Amino acid sequence: MSVITTHRDGDVLVVVSNNPPVNALGFAVRDGLAKALDEAAADPAVKAVVIRCDGRTFFAGADITEFGGPMKDPQLPELLERLEALDKPVVAAIHGTALGGGLETALACHYRIAVPSAKLGLPEVKLGILPGAGGTQRLPRVVGVAAALEMIVGGAPIGAKKASDIGLLDRLAGEDSLAAEAVAFARDIAEKRPLPRTSEKQAVAEPGVFDAFRAANARKMKGFEAPEACIQAIQAAAELPFAQGLEVERKLIRQLMASDQSKAQRHIFFAERAAAKIDGLAPGTPLIPVKSVGIIGAGTMGGGIAMNFLSIGIPVTILEMQQEALDRGVATIGRNYAGNVKSGRMTEDQAKQATGLLKPTLDYADLGQVDLVIEAVFENMDVKKEVFTRLDKIAKPGAILATNTSYLDVDEIAAVTSRPESVVGLHFFSPANVMKLLEVVRGAKTSDSVLATAMALAKQIRKIAVVAGVCHGFIGNRMLKPRQDQAGQLILEGAKPADVDRVFLDFGFPMGPFQLADLAGLDIGWHRDPTRRESVRDALCAEGRLGQKTGGGFYDYDEKRNRTPSPVAERIIAEFAAAKGIAQRAISDEEIRERCLYTMVNEGAKILEEGKAQRASDIDVVWVFGYGWPVYRGGPMFWADLVGARTIVDGLKRQQDRLGPDFTLSPLLVAKAEKGETFN
Ligand code: 3HC
Ligand code: NAI
Fold first, then answer.
1. What is the mean pLDDT of residues 430-453?
2. CATH assignment at residue 443
3. Structural domain boundaries, residue 536
4. What is the CATH number of the domain that holds 667?
5. If we measure between CA atoms, which residue out of 519, 451, 104 comes closest to residue 279?
6. Which atom of ligand 1 is least distant from the CA of 123?
7. Exposed, middle or buried: residue 678 (CB in 10 Å: 0-12, 13-18, 19+)?
8. 133 within ligand 1 shell (Cβ under 6 A)
9. Ligand 1 within 6 A of 128 CB?
10. Do 233 and 304 belong to one domain?
11. 60 CA distance to ligand 1 centroid (A)?
12. Is the pLDDT of residue 379 over 80?
């Protein structure tokens, strides 16, 4: 059956799309819509048209899988011009999400009606492009330049209520009566002339609005190409006639579509979805219902992890050994919720509801009936083993036993229990209530049900989960190590901390390794003995330089925490290097990049060849959502594909003598270089 069908409801032609899962505007949909327009134009008995979608959503955009190749006619921009030019009114009836080309279709319609739960947006900027089917020209003409800038450059969808307030919708329908109300509405306006054609309206810009927007959003837009292109297209809408504005839009989208940034961002869109899929899992693997959660350890991680569940209405019992630690942990959770209320992220009632679901305890017996326990105690194998031994005794059969360990061997932890099949790693990132990434660590004996449940639960708490195998540091922290080692070594050899950080900032990371270290505090893991100076960090700590909190670490900081290079830190580093017999020399940015970034790719390739990640794109997801890898560079493995495995191997060979005795080239990386293959 065709994905587009039409039927008559009196004198209204109803056009229905049924193209699961999201009614993307692929060729078949465009072709069907074009034929429906012909039908509407040709039949004098048709007085008005309604376009709506079956299934879970109105058109959620162009079909992204068609990008990158030639697109078959009819193209969406031309189709929408024909739609708008029809001399009979067309009503878009919107439910679910009208996104990208979907909202552009609605904008080309003469009227728009939606259910209150609908969301409308132009998220193209997140794919490194801009709305290329007239969206940059039509939206500002409907909602004004300021609101269009927010929606197109920001990319976040808005709710139907807001859309209605800013004039994007003509009418709201009842949640369950959209189809009927849309037809009734179409009948009401069938004879109204002139037809409200968006392209005939004016987009008026306040003087200075574009530069003010650029200035206000400079930080968010830094490094990205698409936001500036979006602004220029909207500027064209305000300054040029519609047809010329469209030409500007078309030229800009053509450039963006061919850019590496857009390829990278599209890659991440699909990578994020691929990550949810578990290799080798039997279809229909039963999920374990998780209606209550226990957490052991109410420290930095335990508290943040608890909030994920409390916020979606799942009760949490949180356990500590000492009342004082328990009180402290509970107080922090309360403070974080108060902060959420203050910043408008949730209402007071919602915060109250969440904190009301928290049960603090000192007694393991209180964890006896929960469906999932997450351990977040100190990172120490003996402590973890003791906790899991106790847990094994009291947890109900079938309960999932998870560890939040950053590095430790999940199989060794599982082995102290009588049920290693119930044990899994759930590696959250700090702050655990904010960070999107979750590494789900599949132990040698973890059951399919436990794994599948962990992945499903991640989605429920709105995390992006990636399956990792057991190895030291899993995917993310394992790849962080060579980068940190090289950064530390580079400053001993003569690079300044600011040189290394600058290379990372220029690449697009929000922070360099030394900025990050100063922010986190150099005393993490410090043995507090000023005479022991085994690392530069020890030496800095020994002189009271613990990072931002003490006004100095690798950098000096003023009261506002602005950083400047520190002559004192540089002296300490130089003395440390001299004591180790390391000569200082000038170091190029190229060498910093090769030693810090190419070594990460090499480690990523090892993770793949050992089967510790299911696919290269999973590694990209980990780095983009957990470690600030710029999304427009698509993650380390996608970036490696752009740079070329050959170039990376050559670079690593050039640096081989400086990479330390533990460095070895990944055979997989070498093979890719030799065959000219990519990872993704
Ligand atoms: N094209 C092709 N496939 C798409 C797609 C699209 N626009 N949107 C979603 N899909 C696919 C997903 O890849 C996924 O496939 P899978 O099941 O094989 O993994 C499936 O549809 C379901 O998607 P989600 O898992 O994301 O489902 P959710 O219910 O969580 O979310 C959604 C639905 C909010 C619509 C979300 O999929 C989404 O944000 N989609 C992208 C929307 C978008 O960016 N639209 C703009 C496209 S660019 C454009 O329109 C250009 C124009 O200006 C010319
Ligand atoms: P933390 O020191 O802030 O909290 C640990 C808490 O566990 C403390 O409150 C302590 O009193 C409690 N505790 C210790 N032994 C216990 C026991 N036997 N029973 C009950 N409670 C006990 O540590 P943090 O940072 O929360 O780390 C916890 C775990 O999470 C570690 O395994 C760590 O590697 C991991 N992790 C930490 C991240 C971070 O950025 N801090 C990120 C990801 C994982």
1. 97
2. 3.40.50.720
3. 496-579
4. 1.10.1040.10
5. 451
6. 44
7. middle
8. yes
9. no
10. no
11. 6
12. yes
